[in-house]
Amino acid sequence: MTRYVIVGAGAIGGAIGGRLAHAGLDAVLVARGEHLATLQSTGLRLRTPDEDVTVPVHAVGGPDEVELTPDDVLVVATKTQQAPDALTTWADAPVHADGRVVGTAGERLPVLMALNGVASETMALRYFARVYGVCVWMPAVHLTPGEVIIRGGPRSGMLHVGRVPAQTDERDAALLTQVQRDWTAANYDVPLPPDVMPWKYRKLISNLGNIFQALVHGNGDTGPLTARADAEARAVLAGAGIAVTSDAEEQAARSAGFTMHEVPGVPDDVGGSTWQSLTRGTGNVETDYLNGEIALIAHRTGQAAPVNARLAILARQAAATGLKPGAMSADELAGRLGLD
Fold it and tell me: Which InterPro entries has this protein been placed in (predicted)?
């Protein structure tokens, strides 16, 4: 039986691992601090539009607390800025079979990168021989230890999965079929595109708005600013010759399975991943791998991306100084971007 080791059991990882466990599938959730302690003592509380359940889970703090076997699949679901540490922590963990060590996780196990942005797959290829990208469309929130909120319904989300680079042999096909079967049973839509990266680049464009939500959070209209960042990013990606799934194809796929719904007792203004990082005061955000990714591509290809580059700067400053969501108005943000 395939076992999924979810490295980073926050909003996305907790939702995937919790749903798998709730469906009776084998999952290990990797967490830390008070969140880990709560998972181990009382389980994971899953709150959805239709459920409020506490799921018993197997939770650990690191690879020294679990014996990996060839039947394991690693799923990295940290923030992208945390991925290098997660990958180096797990890549050299021993894999056991027949009472002996048969290799390392990087040599023997597949790793699925369920993160925003498009950088983590390349990070993982430095350490793992078999890397798969996961394009995550799932409105999930993690603010309280031991609790994850999933706001999508009737399906919890849509997770495109594919080998990176885009190549599939019999072993890949078998794994992808198994993942699709298990994750579908856990209430997700799981398409298997021939190339997952155009889907991840399309999701990257959508995630460019995360920083506007985090900085302004209803304190003015950021629509025109978001449109500027979006248009700049699309021009940069086109100029770099990068394939991006069309808006029409993305919308058709996403709307077929889930839409946002209210979760009883959860305020409507709860935000996305960057908002959650500023709210929790983590001291870092993933914007360098969202808006900053557009700046990187622009710099690599002789283009300019001043709006997205400046947004990455403002995000780093906000995280470093403990700025909370809504501390900046839309007009102030426009001024700092030179767009007023």
Answer: 6-PGluconate_DH-like_C_sf, 6PGD_dom2, KPA_reductase, KPR_N, NAD(P)-bd_dom_sf
Q: Does the N-terminal peptide bond of residue 165 adopt cis geometry, omega within 30 degrees of 0?
A: yes
DSSP string, 186-242: TTEE----S-SHHHHHHHHHHHTTHHHHHHHTTSS--HHHHHHHHHHHHHHHHHTT-
Find, among 109, 150, 145, the residue nearest to 4 by Cα.
Answer: 109
Task: Indicate the length of the chain as a whole number.
Answer: 340
Domain positions in the chain are 3-195, 201-336
Classify residue 25 as left (phi > 0), alpha (psi -120 to 50) or beta.
Answer: beta
Q: What is the pTM of this model?
A: 0.95
Antiparallel, parallel or unpaired: β 58-60 and 52-55 = unpaired
Crossing angle of helices 223-239 and 306-321, in 10° steps, is 120
What is the pLDDT, as a whole number, of residue 260? 83
Cα 209 to Cα 116, 228, 268, 273: the distances in Å are 13, 10, 17, 11
pLDDT at 195: 97
268: phi then psi, degrees, rounded to nearest 5: -70, -25
> What is the helix, strand, coil percentage profile of the chain, to 5?
45, 20, 35
CA dihedral 65, 66, 68, 74 (to 10 degrees): -90
The token duo for 238 is: 């086109």
CATH number of 201-336: 1.10.1040.10
Q: Which CATH class is domain 3-195?
A: alpha beta
pLDDT block averages, 10 residues each, the chain of length 340: 96 98 98 98 96 97 98 97 97 97 98 98 98 96 94 93 94 97 97 97 96 89 94 98 95 79 83 82 90 98 97 92 88 87
Among candidates 83, 61, 59, which has minimal Cα distance to 146?
59
Please choose, from the candidates 318, 8, 264, 230, the residue with its C-alpha nearest in 3D space to the C-alpha of residue 136.
8
| Tokens 């500027």, located at residue | 228
